[in-house]
DNA sequence: ACCTGAACACCGTTCAAGT
DNA sequence: ACCTGAACACCGTTCAAGT
């Protein structure tokens, strides 16, 4: 016989999102501690106080978990894109983007996350597409900012804005990788180098 | 009783090198077919016609095998560094380097090898150091070529030669990654972009 | 000295059973 | 509806035994 208490209830609609957050939080803690490959699902489960079976209800695979973390980290960094004005703010804005980019990956894990996500993307077309989509937004924003600066007479790249933006993003990732692999330059060094490059590419010829 | 035939013989001193080559060859074939992570040691052994026990006599781990392949691939690409003259040959030489770099990784495996090696290096300090050593040579050679070009009046980067060289290598790796992850541009496209960037960084101001 | 291949160890993932 | 945790599957690596 059904009592009020035994009546079927609707599931808490916020549960999935909460669980995902709980798992990502735990995973981030573990990755920071031991790196992506050395942490086991079991460890993430222990940290999240959840069973493997439950975890796999919310993420399809271990790779999905890293993907989610890496995409969030990039999103954080790319918030700096919103503040990208044209004209004189351009170089400073790009330097801030670089700074945010490096910071985000330093914070979320050691830099290993950066290369792990690329390795993962190389064999997961869905992840590759997700990264590409973010990249396109970034390149588009930077190119637009360059065009605004050009219109204001504050930048004269010989490269088309789109190509310049592509080169800047490629270099940004290259610098980030160097930083991750061999701690190239302390905290501000990568950002300083990136800034110098941006200046060289974008500043007006005399 | 010892007969001549049963007397201990000196081992073939060339055997280790031959075995390593045989294993690397087999591994390259497998990686090209299926990518690094999907190929198992067992498959490499089958391709090399050798047992797991024998394989582990010549390589300490699966990661060591990838490392050896990646370092060879880089060495191939960097042969272009030797041909890096100063003055007007500079830009063309850099374009050739980029071309060789992309080619080498296209050939050895899909581009996944590029990101796999970075991911591996992020947790293997020995590999990271080996890559860094190669990188330092490359940066040094490029910087020297820039200085020669400057002395000849053919290049006037506002950046110090060393910084310009670092930026070029970072961008080269960034372009290579884009290429690997989302096939950015066909065969010549990455090299073309890199060339345009080098020109922008290095060419004299008017 | 060099090799074989069965056994081991270690995870990522699944699934039958619980509430 | 959501969860548990034991079992499974798959590989990288080792090692006792062979030649």
Description:
The structure is a homodimer of 206-residue chains. Chain A has 206 residues and is mainly α. Chain A folds into 2 domains: 15-60, Orthogonal Bundle (Arc Repressor Mutant, subunit A), CATH 1.10.10; 73-202, Orthogonal Bundle (Tetracycline Repressor, domain 2), CATH 1.10.357. Helix content of chain A is 72%, strand content 0%. Chain A has helices at residues 15-34, 41-48, 52-58, 62-82, 89-108, 112-121, 125-151, 161-182, 189-202. Chain A is elongated, with a radius of gyration of 21 Å. The N and C termini of chain A lie far apart (88 Å). Mean pLDDT of chain A is 86; it is low at 1-8. At the A-B interface, helix 6, helix 7, helix 8 and helix 9 of A face helix 6, helix 7, helix 8 and helix 9 of B. Chain A binds a DNA duplex (19 and 19 nucleotides) through residues 8-11, 15, 40-42, 50-54, 56-57, 61-62.
Question: What is the structure about, briefly put?
Answer:
The structure is a homodimer of 206-residue chains. By secondary structure, chain A is an all-alpha fold. Chain A has helices at 15-34, 41-48, 52-58, 62-82, 89-108, 112-121, 125-151, 161-182, 189-202.
Q: Compute the separation of the termini of chain A in Å.
A: 88 Å
E-strand count of chain A: 0
- The radius of gyration computed from the alpha-carbon positions of chain A, rounded to a whole number of angstroms, is 21 Å
* Low-confidence region ranges of chain A: 1-8
Tell the overall outline of chain A.
elongated
Question: What string gives the helices and strands of chain A in order?
Answer: HHHHHHHHH
Supply the number of structural domains of chain A. Answer: 2
Number of helices of chain A: 9
- Specify the CATH architecture of the largest domain in chain A: Orthogonal Bundle
- Greatest interface and its residue counts? A-B, 46 and 46 residues
Arithmetic mean pLDDT of chain A: 86
> Would you give the CATH topology of the largest domain in chain A?
Tetracycline Repressor, domain 2
Strand content of chain A: under 5%
Structural class of chain A: mainly alpha
Query: How many strands, what sense, and barrel or not for the largest sheet of chain A?
Result: none
CATH class of the largest domain in chain A: Mainly Alpha
Oligomer: homodimer
């Amino acid at each position: 016989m059904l009592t009020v208490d035994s009546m079927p209830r609707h599931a808490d609609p916020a549960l999935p999102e909460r669980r995902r957050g709980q798992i990502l939080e735990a995973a981030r803690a573990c990755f920071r501690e031991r790196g992506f490959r050395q942490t086991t699902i079991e460890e993430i489960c222990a940290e999240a106080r959840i069973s493997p079976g439950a975890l796999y209800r919310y993420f399809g695979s271990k790779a999905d978990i890293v993907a989610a973390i890496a995409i969030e980290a990039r999103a954080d960094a790319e918030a700096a894109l919103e503040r990208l004005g044209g004209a004189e703010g351009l170089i400073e804005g790009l330097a801030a983007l670089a700074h945010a980019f490096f910071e985000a990956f330093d914070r979320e894990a050691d830099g290993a996350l950066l290369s792990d996500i690329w390795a993962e993307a190389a064999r997961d077309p869905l992840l590759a597409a997700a990264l590409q989509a973010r990249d396109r937004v970034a390149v588009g924003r930077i190119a637009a900012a360059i065009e605004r600066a050009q219109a204001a007479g504050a930048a004269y790249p010989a490269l088309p804005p789109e190509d310049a933006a592509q080169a800047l993003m490629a270099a940004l990732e290259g610098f980030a990788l160097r930083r991750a692999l061999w701690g190239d330059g302390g905290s501000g060094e990568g950002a300083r180098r990136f800034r110098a490059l941006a200046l060289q590419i974008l500043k007006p010829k005399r």
